Batch of 2 targets.
Target 1
Amino acid sequence: MSNQVLDILKIVFLGLLYLFFARVLWAVWSEVRRPATAGRRVDPSSEPEMLPASKSSRGPSKGKGGRIGRLVIIEPKHRRGTAFALGSEITIGRNDTCTVAIDNDAFVSGLHARVFTLEGQPMVEDLNSTNGSFLNGTRLSGMKLLHRGDRVQVGYTVLEAQ
């Protein structure tokens, strides 16, 4: 082959390599960037209710004035947008009786954590689980006050207070 053909092949190879790296960076950027969830209207029931955003336009309302009205799953992707109204208590764990039932996660205990109101304030508490619960990346010990935007992690599931 002549030197000109080899030079052209080198340039084509470098161009394809740059396109590959650009695609990888785009994929990483798409994963890091999180889309905003659409607002939902108030659900009249007082019990915590699970309503996937894809199946219903109604769901538990966001809290107003800095108050929390619901917990929304943001991870894993296949459950993203599922909302739970903050009633008297939300339990999180592998048991079917839990409000937020998480199956197929070995890091989640049967009854792992709970979110409840104490004197009108939303609280989160780890229920002596083996692997612990995390509030904004910090391991929970005892009860902690929950604020709007806080993230509660139980195993691989992450819930956001809204």
Target 2
Amino acid sequence: MTKIVVLDGYSANPGDLSWKELDALGDVAVYERTKPAEIIVRAADADIVLTNKVVLSKEIIAQLPKLRYVGVLATGYNVVDVKAAHERDIVVTNVPAYSTESVAQMVFAHLLTVTNHVEHYAVQNRAGRWTSNPDFCYWDFPHMELAGKTFGIVGLGNIGQRVAQIALAFGMKVRAVTSKDVLPSGVEKVSLEELLSISDVLSLHCPLTESTRHLINADSLQHMKPSAILINTGRGPLVDDGAVAAALADNRLAAFCADVLTDEPPKSDNPLLRHQHAYITPHIAWASFEARIRLLQVAIGNVRAFLEGNPVNAV
């Protein structure tokens, strides 16, 4: 029977979903978490390994002689040495586009947090502030309408395009840096330098490569408006954390919203965790119940297709 090992199943399925469909495909062992030192022992006899964030390096792959397939429980597959896998004729698959709606929704949850501060007022009013207010209303922050502002996007993949649609629905002008020649209606293509200078909101949706690592750095921040809001729901290293923290401290950036950071979990001394104008969520944009259902369905479908001799979503 095919031996299937899930190395870190907890994030995708903390208990509110089922591995039942996977169980029907082989002898399945699901581990909530796996430390690096535990990988070889747990996966030594595996034909199939599923991983979310557990790294399968060239050295690890070399020590798994029975391995025929690696399924990444995510869209990004940088946790696997794909070249080393291909040299062994090991199929590697991912799960594309499962989280598009959820991530796009998180982009605007962050943006509206900055512009409207709903939670701030809810907390204040639970403590009775409005009931003791001398006027019928009060506000602690200036409110900003999104309509008419420029929403900049770096990367027009599935998520970037969905974000563009929502920004347009808010009445924003959408500009993008993209390799695409044909753009969605209402979106205009510009250079990165122009995008930095004109964006009231800048949202990052490009893949992490050597050319995009620290795309937002001390130099690029100099070109942005001091009133700009920067949003990163892509990959943490797209942004130089220290440079952004310095820009916030010097009032050269109005706000930084991020669902991802360079180190995850972050180090306790990361200044972005404490800055009043940094809004950090713990890499959960992908993790809605609906998105996780899709994730497991596609991941298990990938395994089934491989076992039937017709791999899909191979990378």
